[in-house]
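Reviewers of the previous submission asked for a worked example of the structure-prediction workflow described in the proposal, so we include one complete record here. The input consisted solely of the amino acid sequence. No template or homolog information was supplied to the procedure at any stage.
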Amino acid sequence: MRIAGSIVIAVVVAALAGCGAGANTAAPVVTVTAPAPVEKSPEPIEQDDKEPTPTLIEETEEKEEKEEKEEAVEKKVLPDVVGMNLQEGQDTMQAAGFYILNDKDATGQNRFQVYDRNWVVTKQTPAAGRKVAVDTLIILYAKKIGE
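From that input alone, the workflow returned the following structure tokens.
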């Protein structure tokens, strides 16, 4: 039995030695690199391509020019299209120089006016007879004929 015990001990020692038990294992090596520093140019950068900051006088002049342009918008008397079918009302507005038009369901049901000739204008905003700029939004309220 002594031989069998010695063999078992020899096998266990050999297995432990093969697995590296007791051996010093080194930790993995990690290398960290930092980006190279960027050198700044000692010469100032010229900024000829930028426009100078406007002064108070220049801002005032620009504001006045903008107001003059707004005043230059042509104003015309708004025609009365209430009672016309929607298509005829739109045509009348455009003939008078008003092209920014919107139409809405006067019943509040938010229906689309697919065939404009089946609808009659019941209200318009701004009201007819007022002198308004031609770029004003004109809203024509309409309901189906017979409603």
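The helical segments are 2-19, 56-71, 86-95. We consider this example representative of the routine output the project will generate in years two and three.
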